[in-house]
Design a protein that fits this description.
The chain is an alpha+beta fold.
């Protein structure tokens, strides 16, 4: 399901698509930390890519007709879909003490993310290729962060960097949650999906039996799209390409 959804969307818009087996990137710590070496690998593997778009596996692209570039990668898109003057929450509830800027300059943006009631959610975000981004990825998996007693691990590491380093805040754009990271109706930590939202993210669903039912309920509500023949063939023959690449090792 997820492969079909992502590959069909990428094919429609001419995006390169990297389906990463997160467990194959041996970071030596909790699997969520493998996100950082995957991002580094993607930048290395696609040297012409100006932006990377990360999507956790528990996400359905609901409105694939949305042009992502126009949606959030232009000044007009940021102005339309940005979260301006919004108080940011913190893990556990309450205010983080930070408010999103009231304006944004697209030329200075290197990271795009949205927030729920517990603050920024790193289940989906965009990163621009830049020296700033290289530095950020080196900082993100600092051993001190990895060993920290954080419930949300790499997500709280990102939040820690944002709240403690102005250079991070100065290059981050905030998108309204429904513009980039809508939640299903059972999740009261954020705004709920409605028709026309880009995607739905089953954040925190875990392995509960209700997850499968909620997923199926949302799956049938997604916008119709064309599944390319090569994707149908891969799925029918169980040959769907799942990356299993370590840093520096290419097929």
């Amino acid at each position: 399901m997820v492969y079909e959804n992502r590959m069909s969307w990428a094919n429609r818009w001419g995006y390169e698509f990297m389906w990463a087996n997160i467990s194959s990137y041996d970071h030596g710590e909790h699997v969520v930390w493998n996100k950082i070496p995957i991002l580094k690998e993607a930048f290395a593997r696609f040297p012409q890519a100006k932006w990377l778009y990360w999507l956790d596996i528990d996400i359905i692209i609901m409105t694939p007709s949305i042009n992502l570039h126009d949606h959030v990668l232009t000044q007009a898109g940021l102005n339309k879909n940005g979260a301006f003057g919004k108080e940011l929450g913190r893990v556990g509830g309450g205010s983080s003490g930070y408010t999103t800027p009231t304006t944004v300059d697209e030329s200075k943006v290197n990271f795009i993310i949205s927030s729920d009631h517990w603050g920024m959610n790193a289940g989906t975000f965009l990163m621009r290729r830049s020296d700033w981004t290289d530095w950020l990825l080196d900082m993100w998996d600092d051993p001190l962060y990895i060993k920290a007693d954080w419930v949300m691990k790499e997500n709280q590491a990102w939040t820690h960097m944002f709240t403690n380093h102005e250079i991070i805040r100065n290059h981050t754009a905030h998108i309204a949650q429904k513009g980039l990271n809508s939640y299903p109706s059972y999740n009261f930590l954020g705004e709920h999906w409605s028709e026309g939202d880009l995607l739905v993210h089953f954040a925190g669903c875990g392995g509960s039996p209700k997850c499968a039912k909620n997923w199926d309920d949302m799956w049938v509500q997604r916008e119709d799209y064309i599944v390319p023949d090569f994707v149908k063939d891969e799925l029918a023959s169980e040959r769907a390409k799942i990356e299993n690449i370590q840093m520096g090792v290419y097929p």
